[in-house]
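ESCALATION

Customer reports they have been waiting on this structure for their group meeting. Please prioritize. Original submission:
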Amino acid sequence: MDSTFIKKVKGLLDGKIPQEVIIEDKTAVEQMRLIQQLDEEDKSTIMKIIDKMLTTKKFKDFFNKNVATL
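Update from on-call: job pushed to the front of the queue and completed.
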């Protein structure tokens, strides 16, 4: 490769290659800040998944509690 090209690429990156983001390691506030950086479609998808999981948990808890009383 052309050394000028390599120098330009290195200059663009300047040692700041994006790192993998692991949201589990973050506080709730930081998690929400990261989610807010996403485009609207991705944010909507994440919120729908969270809503679905929370609704499922509520139903499981409700049925487990009520079945235990039978």
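Sent to customer with the following note: The CA atoms of residues 5 and 11 lie 10 Å apart.
Escalation resolved.
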